[in-house]
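USER:
I would value a second opinion on how I read folds in token form. Give me a protein, with the fold worked out from its sequence. Write it directly below this note and I will take it from there.

ASSISTANT:
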Amino acid sequence: MSDLMEKFQAALVLGGVGDALGSRWEVCVSGPQIQRELGALGGLEALKLDPDQWPLSDGALMLMTTAEALVTDYWCLEDLYRELVRLYVGAMVSLQGRAPEPSTAQACANLKPNNFLLAWHTPFNEKGSGHGAATKGVCVGMRYWQPERLDNLVEVSIETGRMTHNHPIGFLGSLCTALFASYAIQGKPLQSWGRDLLTVIPKAEEYCRKTIRHMAEYQEKWFYFEAKWQFYLEERGIADGESRASFPEPYDADETDKMYKRWSSEGCPGSQGHDAPMIAYDALLAAAHTGRICGRRAVLHGGESSATGLIAGVLFGLLYGLGPVPVGLYQDLDRRDNCRTSGSGFTERRPVEK
């Protein structure tokens, strides 16, 4: 098995691990309390995740649904979008008791699988700024990870994102996670990812203008995403893309809860398209800084931890594979075989679509 295939499989498996862990505690608003409860269970190393006690959430299932479309043999991007529409509409009736995020459910009701030309066009959604586009969009970067496919990555991440989250903060979250996945595969230094994101956002705006859809509504919301990320990069001292990230001492559960709330816009860290990737990215930077697995900061916080855990898990898998992760966390994971199969599909050769 190739090293790339192993990392792609690890990415989706560990995305599921982060999602399952986060789902267990996402109703708790206190990181310290979550860490105490984890300690009572014996810590991450002692956990054995299984489908009954640790089921995947709707976010992980939408990620797998998106991956299913991306690994099919489509000959043009419009065919990919039609397949995504078909699968998203079907997913709403097959989530098996896992309630979809409200924005996702509302948007999927507006998708038009029987309309050949406009199947994936949904209305602008004032409430579509949530994390759902970012969590499912991360696998777009696994399909279009090569630098020469950047234009495809920008277009597909935006269209995939605004099918369910037609709001700049929502679909720019999809662009962000797709980019970060591609950077992980390319081996770009972690500290450069945020700066490079800001250099790509103008391409996203150019693409949206070209499609002539909802730009008047977008204009009012667009700046917020960029401003939040610029603030974050300056706070960490990595706006130049080269310096080593700086962290407060101590950077414990109390401190992460406070900091994550400062980055959020709804009072629930990780609930939006800008801060779900931000928290995952920050956890990866902190792990590189301390030499420890990023799970605690990505998952064990008082916010939307299934979203941040999923994104961080995918990126961690692309960077490091399964090697550093305790076997009990993924050996019997809910839908583990589906995750591995989807990951394998990204390494197969396909025609270059137009």
